[in-house]
């Protein structure tokens, strides 16, 4: 699928995320401590490469997800005697310290309707790899205020699956290509590809492309943006990212696709994979993403909502990578969702387009 096809084709039958039921949180009666002492766990080869939060959620059955994330972020969980981020990839031989835990006995689970159902279009699947087209508005996993996510939905829909893990993340508000490993060997291979960055560096990485609509007139047909990014906590406890010399290296390549009087449509190619990388790079340059409620132009977002844009305009449309199990290249693509395509058409109907093919 060419870039223009991603904008124009294959959209009629695609459904947006619409839960068939409204989700409410489970009601838990907390038994304060079931384990009265600290436990020490040695990470095995089979557990090598797993995220800390994913392993804890598996090991701590009956413990609310919010509590699992809380004990990690407060430093009660230790890896080799040190604090660790929830995203830390465990290594075989690591010693994991788990504090006494509150075990939740479910007194009542309130869910309107029989089951939480998510429509997740399958883009590609084989014995080791699953690729879905994630809708906007759903997190990739539960926790941190989210009761349910893509991985939980897929595990519920596939109870026979022996192994199913996220290979990477997309923001809740971002739609598009999401990879999952169905074998541990595939998952580890995918992690290595993502750490290797773009395919330009030796051909062993993954080439990730996004479509993004920004507020403003972007003038450069091609622009490399190298700005280091630093994670930080606001006084409210909200996690955010900003450009800082103290941050980690971050590199995004932007290509201009189309430009109107008020907006520009870009293709963003990730050379590194930092949290909120595209969003922060663009906001820092003065081109906030349309509909971005965290880093965007809040007054403009309200106006855009009235014009029909109800979400952030950021879509992971294409990924190219070496197949983890076969000696061939794999290319997976997801067309621009109908709601975003419709908004682009509404812009074209009202504003003069002075760059790119007619959208």
Automatic annotation (TrEMBL):
Active-site residue list: 171
GO MF annotation terms: 23S rRNA pseudouridine(955/2504/2580) synthase activity; RNA binding
Entry keyword Cytoplasm: no
Pfam families xref list: PseudoU_synth_2, S4
Keyword Cell inner membrane belongs to the record: no
Domain of life: Bacteria
Catalytic activity: a uridine in RNA = a pseudouridine in RNA; uridine(955/2504/2580) in 23S rRNA = pseudouridine(955/2504/2580) in 23S rRNA
Classification via PROSITE patterns: PSI_RLU, S4
GO BP, sorted A to Z: enzyme-directed rRNA pseudouridine synthesis
CDD domains noted in UniProt: PseudoU_synth_RluA_like (cd02869), S4 (cd00165)
Record InterPro entries: PsdUridine_synth_cat_dom_sf (IPR020103), PsdUridine_synth_RluA-like_CS (IPR006224), PsdUridine_synth_RluC/D (IPR006225), PsdUridine_synth_RsuA/RluA (IPR006145), RluA_PseudoU_synthase (IPR050188), S4_RNA-bd (IPR002942), S4_RNA-bd_sf (IPR036986)
Residues that span the membrane, as ranges: none
Keyword terms, alphabetized: Isomerase, RNA-binding, rRNA processing
Domain RNA-binding S4, residue spans: 50-109
Top EC group: isomerase
Identification of the protein by name: Pseudouridine synthase
Organism of origin: Candidatus Accumulibacter phosphatis
């Amino acid at each position: 699928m060419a870039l223009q096809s991603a904008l124009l084709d294959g959209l009629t039958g695609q459904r947006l995320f619409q839960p068939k039921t409204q989700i409410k949180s489970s009601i838990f009666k907390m038994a304060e401590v079931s384990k009265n002492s600290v436990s020490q766990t040695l990470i095995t080869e089979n557990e090598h490469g797993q995220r800390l939060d994913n392993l804890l959620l598996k090991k701590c059955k009956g413990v609310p997800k919010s509590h699992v994330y809380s004990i990690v972020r407060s430093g009660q969980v230790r890896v080799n005697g040190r604090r660790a981020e929830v995203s830390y990839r465990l290594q075989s031989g690591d010693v994991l310290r788990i504090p006494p835990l509150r075990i939740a006995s479910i007194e009542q689970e309130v869910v309107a309707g029989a089951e939480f159902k998510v429509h997740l279009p399958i883009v590609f699947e084989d014995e080791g790899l699953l690729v879905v087209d994630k809708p906007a508005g759903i997190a990739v996993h539960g926790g941190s205020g989210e009761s349910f996510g893509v991985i939980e939905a897929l595990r519920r829909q596939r109870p026979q699956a022996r192994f199913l893990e996220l290979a990477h993340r997309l923001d809740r508000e971002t739609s598009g290509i999401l990879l999952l490993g169905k074998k541990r060997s595939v998952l580890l291979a995918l992690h290595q590809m993502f750490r290797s960055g773009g395919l330009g560096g030796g051909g062993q990485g993954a080439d990730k492309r996004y479509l993004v609509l920004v507020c403003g007139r972007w003038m450069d047909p091609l622009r490399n943006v190298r700005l280091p990014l630093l994670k930080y906590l606001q006084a409210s406890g909200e996690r955010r990212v900003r450009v800082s010399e103290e941050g980690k290296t971050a590199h995004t390549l932007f290509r201009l696709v189309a430009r109107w009087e008020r907006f520009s449509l870009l293709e963003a190619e990730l050379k590194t994979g930092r949290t909120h990388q595209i969003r922060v790079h663009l906001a820092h340059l003065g081109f906030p993403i349309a509909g971005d409620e965290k880093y965007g132009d809040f007054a403009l977002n309200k106006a855009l909502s009235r014009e029909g844009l109800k979400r952030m305009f950021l879509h992971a449309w294409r990924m190219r990578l070496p197949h983890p199990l076969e000696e061939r290249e794999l290319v997976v693509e997801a067309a621009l969702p109908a709601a975003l395509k419709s908004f682009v058409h509404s812009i074209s109907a009202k504003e003069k387009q002075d760059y790119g093919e007619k959208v």
